[in-house]
Write a structure and sequence with these properties.
The chain is of the alpha/beta class and 458 residues long. Helices cover 43% and strands 14% of the residues. The protein has helices at residues 16-26, 39-46, 57-64, 75-81, 107-119, 136-144, 167-172, 185-198, 212-243, 247-255, 276-289, 293-320, 348-358, 371-377, 391-395, 415-421, 437-443, and strands spanning 5-10, 30-35, 69-72, 84-87, 124-128, 153-157, 177-181, 207-211, 329-333, 362-366, 385-387, 400-403, 427-430, 446-449. It has a 6-stranded parallel β-sheet, with helices on both faces. Strands 11-10-9-12-13-14 form a 6-stranded parallel β-sheet, sandwiched between helices. The structure holds uridine-5'-diphosphate-xylopyranose.
Length: 458
């Protein structure tokens, strides 16, 4: 078949896979190929059963497979045969050398750039899709410009704002699509090519164009703003617990100010996910390198408050349960970093589980999607953890439940039955404030929400 455009994406992960599946579904006349080094992952995509859990994804992938959506490990061919190349490789926080623990590890990104350089036999548009530090596009341009044979590479920044669990909805109906480019003639032409792709389903006024550095920085700034809201309401939750105020009431009242808005004000055990911490630390690193120490300290506090919230949660458990958790069985309801995903990257549950183990508690983990990842996250733990899919089985003989993930499933359980299965006095620590606390109290539980007065029978 003769396709109107040929698109390649390097990296078949949480961003690359769903984004390309949606482009393929919205643009049936474009060919969309996704390459990844991991054969198992490619096979999973090709089987129509994607390697990640995301509501609505399977269907979009199955629509495109064999028609205009292809997954492969053949990167050389992918680069040769496609003119528009998205780079969506992972950029984790560096664990070594300069900037360890803060800066982004760009080795996968640079490898992708060098592969493009090696295999391209015609000019290409190269698009940064993963979140990169500001000025990455420039570095990419410099690598790509080292070829002097008339082949041109135009680098664009097109950060992805999708959130896991709602990826398909966010991609189909985005708040905005952001495209950063050079303002040279070639840069603007490349930009317009990418605008034309999104214009197949996104209205023109939602497609924002900017200079390339604004685009890169806007992604980091957006994640900083979002995470900042969570750390702010979590800081307020600590004040609520000391003063008798109720964080849900405070959040509602504050959020009704239209200048503030009501979203992202749910107090929790802490934010997780692959982006927030990484991107904020990335911004901290940028500020420190540029000598903006005050700004760096301010930005970093968002992460520090998030750590504090997790510590506070376990300390509250310890205090409530008579200052010892040793030998007690505690069931974690949920291990994913949020509902509707099997992803556990930076999930607060990882640290909570480890802190409970440090207290010599036994931890039972239940989650409808994330048990495989949970096992990997805690693979080094030799004693004290078990994984049970059925929540009723999981709570058997437990002293406490700690809600880690806001799965709907946990709202709908039969808590009288659960109470019967547990050791008394039974405790619930609701790290997401999703349960009916009054009803639980009446059943006989001692209930400890976040940012609200505890409801205890003693
Ligand atoms: C985030 C951004 O929202 C998205 O735009 C960006 O592209 C990637 O990073 P994601 O990490 O998938 O998306 O999930 P998000 O819904 O933002 O939640 C992040 C964390 O914050 C989760 O652990 C969530 O449970 C927590 N959270 C969110 C709260 O604790 N309270 C809230 O009010 C909202």
């Amino acid at each position: 078949m003769n396709f109107d455009k040929r698109i390649l994406c390097i990296g078949a992960g949480y961003v690359g896979g769903p984004t390309m599946a949606v482009i393929a579904s919205k643009c049936p006349r474009y060919s969309v190929t996704v390459v990844d080094v991991d054969q198992g992952r490619v096979d999973a995509w090709n089987s129509g059963k994607p390697p990640i859990y995301e509501p609505g994804l399977d269907e979009v992938v199955r629509q495109g497979l064999g028609r205009n959506l292809f997954f492969t490990t053949d990167i050389a061919r992918g680069i040769r045969e496609n003119d528009i190349i998205f780079v969506s490789v992972n950029t984790p926080t560096k664990t070594f050398g300069a900037g360890a623990g803060l800066a982004a590890d760009l080795q996968y990104w640079e490898l992708a750039a060098r592969q493009i350089l090696e295999h391209a036999d015609s000019s290409k548009i190269v698009i940064e899709k993963s979140t990169f530090p500001v000025k990455t596009a420039q570095a990419m341009e410099r690598i790509l410009m080292s070829r002097n044979d008339g082949i041109h590479f135009d680098v664009l920044s097109n950060p992805e704002f999708l959130a896991e669990g709602t990826a398909i909805r966010d991609l189909v109906n985005p708040d905005r699509v952001l495209i950063g480019s050079r303002s040279t003639e070639r840069g603007l032409k490349a930009r317009d090519e990418l605008v034309a792709i999104y214009a197949n389903w996104v209205s023109r006024e939602r497609i924002i164009t900017s200079n390339i550095w604004s685009s890169e920085l806007s992604k980091l700034a957006s994640n900083f703003f979002l995470a900042q809201r969570i750390s702010t309401i979590n800081a307020i939750s600590a004040v609520c617990e000391k003063t008798g105020a109720d964080v849900s009431e405070v959040a509602k009242i504050v959020g009704m100010d239209s200048r503030i808005g009501s979203r992202f004000l749910n107090a929790s055990v802490g934010f997780g996910g692959s982006c927030f911490k990484k991107d904020i630390l990335n911004l901290v690193y940028l500020c420190r390198v540029e000598g903006l120490e005050e700004v760096a300290d301010y930005v970093e506090k968002v992460v520090l408050i998030n750590e504090y919230q997790k510590e506070r949660f376990v300390l509250n458990m310890l205090t409530a349960m008579f200052n010892t958790l040793a030998g007690k069985k505690i069931c974690l309801f949920g291990f994913a970093f949020k509902a509707d995903t099997g992803d556990t990257r930076e999930s607060p549950a990882i640290q909570i589980a480890r802190k409970l183990l440090d207290e010599h508690a036994e931890v039972v983990i239940t989650d409808p999607q994330a048990l495989v990842s949970a096992r990997e996250d805690l693979a080094d733990v030799e004693w004290g953890v078990s994984y049970v899919e059925d929540p009723y089985e999981a709570v058997r003989g437990c002293h406490a439940i700690a809600v880690m993930t806001e799965w709907n499933l946990y709202r709908e359980l039969d808590y009288s039955r659960i109470h019967d299965l547990m050791v008394k006095p039974a405790f619930i620590f609701d790290g997401r404030n999703i349960l009916d606390h009054q009803a639980l109290y009446e059943i006989g539980f001692n209930v400890y929400p976040i940012g609200k007065r505890p409801m205890s029978h003693f």
